[in-house]
């Protein structure tokens, strides 16, 4: 519609009324949780593992941290969900780093959006492939000499260009992920190649497992099938490998990175490092020298507070998924190098992150949100003056598709949505009595269907076809007779044939691993 925006601000996270966990644990278990909260697909998650116990070297560690003002202030309260963006950059300063995996781009090489629930009962890390084709919005970047500069956005480019390219800083990655997912981000943490080498050496090696032999000339990694310990240069080669494992893509490398970081966290906690002041300091010193954060958490005290708060999440309820993607259809067969978001499989994940719904079975059993929580119940009964919104209590007998009569209006921000829906209804679903009624008199965020009591069967059929939530059904007080039902497509329209209501459950074919899984072996 004219004047409508192409994108919307991120949807606010939904708060839940569940009581936070309050069980007492032994001191050692508490320290373990604080460290293991950082397990996930980005090395930056481990960079403050030792900080919570290093209060006595506050000034030393505080001076190690690099801070960036990204022009965004979005802190959180202890009773709110938290979303932290972890970034591993392709910056290769340091001895030997220039040899890994081609030329450096200083881009967003490894990116994880980590969501911690409001009650700290569960957490989910979403890995975003660097080769994803996406849009990068304009972003304001602080300049060294003072002032700021707006870096123009780019459309249809690799995601890793959201960092480094054209002078973009971590705030540009922040804005890109926020616009992509609709999830409001609170803070970021970032590390580079040197952190992989230094931290893996500091812990004395990281156990990893590969199901097949690896001989990758790009990264230089050579491993037999089975279990190994890697550190230093070998550790960096492991997390950089992509051409000789799995599909040879960035998606396979993400699996290696997730395994590596989770294993490193277990090595820190189970190896007794958190009980040794000397080892604790060495680890914290190494970690903070590799750490860049936003100014909102730019001190050891703030990082300690963050670790103490978010460390309540148990490993069994901390899971990691990779953003569902498809091969880029614009690239020729046999030359696929990039991917695009698989919208139908990604949408439920985005919804669950926005609405603070657990993606682990145990989290759902504990009542921390689940597939039945649509978040739209508050809209029921708000259909106007008739006071009969929200659908009828008795389910009507669905009418045949050929008898469904409906006028389709476009009240959302997708140009051509009404015509696209009309073509789908008539040519795919067999609804010949449907009509494109043009633009709606007013814009609306949510799709609605108005119908008379005598059209309840037609409404049931259309609702099933389009995946309409109960809150979209607006039964009027008077029978409609020969008048058609009124379908107004809102901003939640995702495409003809795509359900309006995104299911709040992880798609069955999306792989998810939990942080307490010690048997992961990359294939």
Describe this structure in words.
The chain has 523 residues and is α/β, with parallel strands linked by helices. The protein contains twelve helices and 23 strands. Strands 1-14-9-2-3-4-15-23 form an eight-stranded mixed beta sheet, with helices on both faces. Strand 20 (448-451), helix 12 (456-466) and strand 21 form a beta-alpha-beta unit. Helix 1 packs antiparallel against helix 6 and helix 5 runs antiparallel to helix 6 (250-270). It is elongated and about 80 Å long.
Structural key phrases:
523 residues, alpha/beta, 5-stranded mixed sheet, disordered N terminus
Q: What order do the helices and strands come in, and which of them pair?
A:
Layout: H1 27-36, H2 58-64, E1 66-68, E2 82-89, E3 108-116, E4 123-128, E5 133-136, E6 139-142, E7 148-151, E8 154-158, H3 170-181, E9 187-191, H4 193-202, E10 206-210, E11 214-216, E12 221-223, E13 226-230, H5 232-240, H6 250-270, H7 277-289, E14 292-294, H8 300-310, E15 318-322, E16 325-327, E17 339-341, H9 343-354, H10 361-365, E18 406-410, H11 417-427, E19 434-439, E20 448-451, H12 456-466, E21 473-475, E22 485-489, E23 512-514
Parallel strand pairs: 1-14, 2-9, 4-15, 18-19, 18-22, 20-21
Antiparallel strand pairs: 2-3, 3-4, 5-8, 6-7, 9-14, 10-13, 11-12, 15-23, 16-17, 20-22
Instruction: Sum up the overall morphology in one term.
Output: elongated
Q: Which secondary-structure class do the elements indicate?
A: alpha/beta
What's the average pLDDT?
80
> How is the biggest beta sheet arranged?
8 strands, mixed
> Uncertain regions: pLDDT < 50 for 5+ in a row?
1-56, 92-105, 362-393
Strand adjacency order, main sheet: 1-14-9-2-3-4-15-23
The count of helical stretches stands at 12
Question: What amount of the residues lies in strands?
Answer: 15-25%
